[in-house]
Amino acid sequence: MPKGSPELTASRREEIISACEKLYKTHSFKEITLKDISAETSLSRPSVYNYFHTKEEIFLALLEREYTDWSDELFRISQNESVSAEQFADLTARSLAEREQLLKLLSMNHYDMEENSRPECLASFKVAYGKTLDMMYACLDRFFHEINKERFIYVFFPFMFGIYPYTSVSEKQLTAMKEAEVDLKIKSVYELVYSCIMQLLGR
Known about the structure:
The protein is an all-alpha fold. It is 70% helix and 0% strand. The chain has two domains: 52 residues, Arc Repressor Mutant, subunit A, CATH 1.10.10; 144 residues, Tetracycline Repressor, domain 2 (Orthogonal Bundle), CATH 1.10.357.
């Protein structure tokens, strides 16, 4: 167990998570090691183990933070007096267009990430994920109470896992598609999310 006050423990956890986030902007999940993450912090590698036992736990904590931030944004959207379908699609699409890290994390293999994390880490993540679901339900309840909310959730949330690969295409992938004569129109995060929500709302 880490020594120190709860505030110090929380601060050091955030430092480790932020170091992982920084590395993930320029490196792939496979390339990043616990040694790399610790090098970006003020902590030694053995000290990092006091807070996270595996690299997967750190990535899961980063995803938890991303979900928490997004659920806060959904809460702000839910506080509007009234929102049309077009406005809700616009606000939600903008909120995700600003969260590339969340979308990139969602495109990862979650099975392995969760399998290599302790139960308490997984439970903490599920709380944040559940709060995001609750906030989306709250928005739908407030503005579109007549629609099938469960259908919306079970289409939209799985849909989010595929947004990043469809909107962030590398030069290598573009070259391969050109050679394969695949005519793929690259859409933005905003365009994909807006279109999906409008369809789910029956507009």
